[in-house]
Amino acid sequence: MPDNKEVTVAPEYKTHLGINPLFLTYIATLNGHNIKEISEGFRYCCITTEDDTSIIPLANLFPKATFFLVLPDHKSVEKISSIATTANLTNISFHKLETKLLRSSNFNNFDFIVVNENLSYMNRKTLDLTISIFEKLLNLQGIVHVKYDCLPGCAPILDLRQILVQLDEVLNIDSHGKVLAGLDHIQHLKSKGAPYFLENGPVEKCLSGLAQKLTPETAKILFGNIYKPRFFNNINNRLNKVGMVYSGSSIAYRNYPELVLNQEFNDQISNSTSRENTETLLDFVTRQDFRADIFVKDARTFTATEKLDALSSIPFGTLVGLDDFPRDISFGQVNINYKSEVINTIIEELATNAKTVKNLSSMLSLSAHPKEVILENVNLLVASGYVLPLKRETSPDNKKFMQANRFQLCSSFNREMLKNGLFSEPFIYLAAEEFGIQFEISRDNAILLVCLLEAPQEHLLNWIAQRLSEQNPELLPDLTAIEKKLANFRQTKLPKLVEFGIIKPETV
Questions:
Q1: Distances (CA, A) of 433 to 56, 176, 183, 290
Q2: Distance CA 408, CA 410 (A)
Q3: What does DSSP say about strands 43-47 and 110-115: parallel, antiparallel, or unpaired?
Q4: Is the dihedral of CA 199, 202, 208, 211 positive or negative?
Q5: What is the mean pLDDT of residues 242-260?
Q6: Alpha-carbon distances of 97 from 37, 56, 400, rounded to whole Å
Q7: pTM of the model
Q8: So where are the chain's domains?
Q9: Which SS3 state, helix, strand or coil, does residue 109 take?
Q10: What CATH architecture is 13-150+229-301?
Q11: What is the model's pLDDT at position 140?
Q12: What whole-number distance in Å separates Cα of residue 449 and Cα of residue 210?
């Protein structure tokens, strides 16, 4: 199955941009859509899978907003609602995905509807109900975000699926076992020089990838007669019928054809007569297998001046410190070098504090450059995944940070997330309250953070060693390596966690 590529992210902290209202608003604005101005009191609906907890931090980040989480069954409702209860969140409610939601007196007037389940995995009834929710319950100028496996990139999966279904008649075992056995049969055909595989490179590549990352869940999808990747125009046409207009992609760089394709293809794309044709051509040229699309209801367009003003007022910040910001990044078929004088200055400023383009342009170091040029470079940095639109500008007290030996968590929410998830998951969701974003922190970094918060300084290394060995009992603690890891964490991660609003230095 295709990888879930809806976000391009910095390596230290992963964030699910496709569900964040700040990012969705930025993408719509970037593409010229003047959506309803949202206050912190917006209404937000997320339709998702049974084990998705990524929306929970959003309820903490936007306490004046109202969140509705729609899940596939009552069991998943009970499971995830208990997490919100533990975190003392009162602005989020949980619902089973069913037709009567359309008649509920309180379930309506949404500014955002995010489908955090892959549309390609939905049966027809569920998909129809989801689109009915878009049509009937989304406010004018509201935003919808959907993700789905797409064609033509997923065509090889359909070919392989057909072969596996044919083999199913002679393989009387569970779905996971069926796929494994079927893949063995297909590999045997390939090894014997079957022309189909010799002449079909994408199918051969797909076969190899499927064998490496097969799970019981993907096996069930392959044999469940539900899986249906779609062309962009299929989704686009269907949403057009209910008043939705395509705005852009939550995969930030895909909003720029010049970052997806090299110049020879861009010349052809530039002659496209419509956005729909452009997106379709991009998918075919790149053999795209996954899309993450943003649509706007009753879309209104900005003038050029209005768009510049709107984007210039958005605060932007980085997920990493200056030393961790890469200067060469690959997008699709294109490599970008982030080494110009203007972009270097912007990176240096944003790596320290979040700022608006309006404030960047007033700085002496950037005052010689038009606001449009500064914005263009900031947008390019957002495309990299290392710069994000945020809730507000930041100004952490670096002097105070440098003097501090002890830190404390800023919110009870993050305390609960760290306490409940430290050893149960490979990552933990935290809420960056100053930024207005939710993000994942790795378990190793979470352990270092918890030990710094709780451990006596004189026993810190031993505490960390004990926690890490609890995670992996077969790993012998190496205090020298732990000391180096801790030093790196202090130097590169702690300053950002202070800026994020995750921790703050204790009074010295």
A1: 13, 42, 47, 31
A2: 6
A3: parallel
A4: negative
A5: 92
A6: 28, 18, 49
A7: 0.89
A8: 13-150+229-301, 155-222, 318-389, 398-505
A9: coil
A10: 3-Layer(aba) Sandwich (3.40)
A11: 93
A12: 37
